[in-house]
Amino acid sequence: MTPLTSNQQYDCVVVGSGASGSIIASKLAEAGQSVLILEAGPSRDLKDLISSQLWARQLKWSGSAVEEEGNHKIGHGFNAGFGAGGSALHHYGVWPRLHSNDFDILSKHGKNLDWPISYETLRPYYDEVQADVGISGDAKAEIWRPKGEPYPMPPLPVFAQGQVISKGFSAMGLTTAPIPLAINSVPYKGNPSCVYDGWCDAGCPIGALKNPLVTHLKQAILAGAEIRYDAQVTRVLTDKNRQDVASGVEYIDREGHTQRVKAGRVVLAAFTVQTVRILLNSVRANGVALGNQFDNLGRYLTTHAGRTVFGLFSEQTDPHLGPTGGQLICHDHYDDKTAIKDSFGSYQWLIANAVKPNGLLGYANSRPDIFGPKLQPFMAQAAKHLGNMLYVGEDRSVRENRVMLSDKTDKFGIPVARTVHNAGPEQEAQMAFAMAEGEAIFRAGGATEVWTGPRAPIHIMGGAVMGSKEQTSVTDDLGLVHGTDNLYVVGPSLFPTSGAVNPTFTVSALAYRTAEHLIKTG
Amino acid sequence: MNDLSRRNFIASTGIGLAGLAAGGALLSPRQAQAVSLPLKALTKDQALTLGALGEALVPGALEAGIIQYIDKQLGEPNTLLMLKYLGVDTSAMPGFYRSALGSAHRLSQRLFKKSPEALTANEALAWAENIAAGTDKEWQGPPAGFFFFVVRADACDVVFGSSAGSEALNIPYMAHIAPTTSW
Question: Of A111, A347, B10, B176, which has the maximum CB count within 10 A?
Answer without folding.
Answer: A347
